[in-house]
Amino acid sequence: MFEGRVALVTGGGRGIGKAIAQVLAKHGAKVAVSARSTNEINRVADDIGGLAITADVSNYGDVQRMIDETRKHFGQPVDILVNNAAIVGPVNSVNFLDIAEWVKALQVNVNGVMYGIYAALPGMVPSEWGRILNITSGAGRGTGIPHLNAYSVSKAAVDMITRNAAVDLDGSGVTINAYSPGTVDTEMQTEIRETPIEQAGGETAAMFQNFYESGNLADPRLVATYAAAIIASDRNGEIIDRRSFPADLEKLRQHFT
Ligand SMILES: NC(=O)c1ccc[n+]([C@@H]2O[C@H](COP(=O)([O-])OP(=O)(O)OC[C@H]3O[C@@H](n4cnc5c(N)ncnc54)[C@H](OP(=O)(O)O)[C@@H]3O)[C@@H](O)[C@H]2O)c1
């Protein structure tokens, strides 16, 4: 399905990013993975025969280098970019949160996504084909999750970056969508679950504990098949939730199971 394509997955060292990198590689793409933890991305790159690039997405120089190194290594530009890297950020009530941590979370979760798009487009547009998939979250919709201000705000911004960029890119052959994977069994979930209740607040602590205890955390490998289906499609400008996945995309997803 992805033969001849070069993909870059940010935050590809573990969790959802690792699983997306694996499914793209299994279906023919040449894949680079990036993150700050070199040992994790090295393991994934070894596993899939890909490239590992140590990079922090909140630093534009790192992001440009990651795009350039991928192009150099595989001999062609990145044509599939998965903006997956993100952090939870400060978990606390708005009147107690650490404002420097709040800014840092937006630098990673919002600037990091925009940096990736900005650096990848010059390689995608001339070939009139490109796929950008931003990993978003239900936390960015509705009223957001209590005590998760930075995370909720950042994912709302990711949704709007996606919609806005899709309009600009319409007709170019480059599509951009956002994928909301639901609750997934990764370190990010563990981190929130392990936050002291006085910071997480009773409602949020109970909600995340309940995801875990009720068996509502999906396997990242399953979650990744949905991402692959969106990338394989021609959709543009959509925020697609795994739990209300469109029927035509579900058909496409079967190729990746
Ligand atoms: N798990 C869920 O239930 C859930 C639900 C909805 C949405 N999501 C979204 O899914 C995506 C993946 O999350 P996950 O659950 O797989 O989390 P995870 O297990 O914590 O993995 C996050 C990945 O992002 C990387 N990363 C974090 N900060 C980075 C930075 N500044 N620069 C480069 N890489 C960075 C991490 O590596 P390093 O720390 O080594 O850099 C790691 O590889 C995120 O966008 C998240 O918001 C997750």
Written overview of the protein:
α1 packs parallel to α2, α3 packs parallel to α4 and α4 runs parallel beside α5. The protein is α/β, with parallel strands linked by helices and 257 residues long. It has one domain: Rossmann fold. It has ten helices and seven strands. The model has no long low-confidence stretch (mean pLDDT 97). The structure holds NADP nicotinamide-adenine-dinucleotide phosphate. The site of NADP nicotinamide-adenine-dinucleotide phosphate has 28 residues, from α1 and α6.
Concise account of the structure shown:
The protein contains ten helices and seven strands. By secondary structure, it is of the alpha/beta class.
In the CATH classification, which architecture applies? 3-Layer(aba) Sandwich
Distance between the termini: 13 Å
The secondary-structure element order is EHEHEHEHEHEHHHHEH
Distinct helical segment count: 10
Mean of all residue-level pLDDT scores: 97
CATH class: Alpha Beta
How does the helix and strand content classify structurally?
alpha/beta
* Unreliable parts: none
Number of domains in the coordinates?
Answer: 1
Biggest sheet: strands, sense, closure? 7 strands, parallel
Number of strands: 7
CATH homologous superfamily placement? NAD(P)-binding Rossmann-like Domain
The molecules bound to the chains, other than polymers, are: NADP nicotinamide-adenine-dinucleotide phosphate
Radius of gyration: 17 Å
